[in-house]
Amino acid sequence: MQLEQYKSVWESLRSTILEKMTALAAGLKTVVEYTVSDVCISGPDEFLLSDEYRISFDLKNEKEVTVLSVEFALMDAADAGEDDGCAVMCGFNGHAGLILGGYAPARYSNDCYTTDVDVLSTRVDEFDIEEAAQFIVNEALQDETLLKEVREASK
Question: Where on the tree of life does the source sit, at the highest rank (predicted)?
Fold first, then answer.
């Protein structure tokens, strides 16, 4: 997708994504033992060779070790070797990049990447904050590999 077209799609989705991520971070602050960072908007990233924009926040322990990163991104089809369009994805990544889950509608289908902003907007709207919070608290933060890695990194 051309950068200007990508930016236009991002601008149409940014406020809703920011609202959802801010609400998710606020909800987690009340139920987890970790410090929840401020929500931030980032992108493009020369280091990652990507023009993609994302909104994210981290959960850190008392030693400032990042336990979990939550990142909602507008994925560019070109970065995935596809022809055209965008996809939305919210990833839950543990310490040292451990993939713990996420939200990626139509991920392994021909409909994953689309140029239809209404479809992308619907996918963002369908991201369920309560379901995400429950998954983070009850599954992601209970992952044995994650807990082991965080203990090691916190020594």
Answer: Bacteria
